[in-house]
Amino acid sequence: MLTSFESIFAGKWIAGPDIEHAMSRAREINRRGCSAIVNYLGEDLKDNTEIEESTVEYIKLIEAIKANKINADISVKASQIGLAVSEETAMANYSKIAGKARGAGIFVWLDMESSGTVDSTIKIYESQVKAGGVGIAIQSYLRRSNMDAETLVNEGGIIRLVKGAYRESPEIAYTEWRERTENFRKIMSMLFEKSATFTVATHDLELVNDAVNLNKKYNRNVTVAMLLGIRNRYVYELARTGFRCAIYVPYGRRWVDYASRRLREASNIYLLLRSIMER
């Protein structure tokens, strides 16, 4: 039985407990002119059985997207497919998922996590870049991200730019909203100049407007993405203008860590509270 708090997340920010719920929500998102980025919730798994179950779940998710003819990417966390055990375990499972998705014509994103996992996550991602069909999230709040983003673009990588929501020290990350936003803008500008395809993932409407205006100049294959349940009305309206848009759709029962990060991430808690009322 779900508590009322869990029901709010399941109904607004999380598609539901299983693939069927994720497909239903993704189908509705497609109907409204956007693609979906589907993520199976889970992270920092250390039990080999749970790691294998997560890997198998992504294979099933790929099959479901293809069978249902859903316009969707998938997004994976390295720590849910073995990184907490070893880099080699995560890389092997990522290879399985990426290979299956590539055969089905489905794009795979590798989510970025806390700063201690960045080097390994990039290494895991780089193992599949040349084969194609994969992208990686880069977090603008990390001081190293400008260099990481440019290096990956030069290697042919595809980036989904996000602000980031993990707790980090000031030596590693920009801790002020203004600094994070400005660094996001700098990296985004670099992407418009040097990358043909990328995603701008933010609810900051000033940054979204900047992306729309920059694309009038550069005409890139750029997508604006937002989280399920937050400012989705706006992104649907943007999609109706012909701009590529996507909504990040998490599902599964491991929702606590995801929800707590979303709450920490909110520079304006009003945005999250308002999202509960948004249709």
Structure characterization notes:
Helices cover 51% and strands 16% of the residues. The chain is built from 11 helices and 8 strands. It has helices at 4-13, 19-31, 48-67, 87-104, 118-129, 145-154, 177-194, 205-218, 232-240, 256-265, 269-277, and strands at residues 35-40, 72-77, 108-111, 134-139, 159-162, 197-201, 221-227, 244-251. An 8-stranded parallel barrel has the order 1-2-3-4-5-6-7-8, surrounded by 8 helices. The two termini are 24 Å apart.
Give a quick precis of the structure:
This protein is an alpha/beta fold and 279 residues long. The chain is built from eleven helices and eight strands.
- Main pleated sheet: 8 strands, parallel, barrel
Low-confidence stretches: 266-270
Overall geometry comes to globular
Q: What is the mean predicted local confidence, pLDDT?
A: 91
The quaternary organization reads as single chain
Number of helices: 11
Structural class: alpha/beta
- Record the strand order, biggest sheet: 1-2-3-4-5-6-7-8
Compressed to H and E, one letter per element, the order equals: HHEHEHEHEHEHEHEHEHH
For the secondary structure, the number of strands is 8
Report strand %.
Answer: 15-25%
Radius of gyration: 17 Å
Kindly report how far apart the N and C termini lie: 24 Å
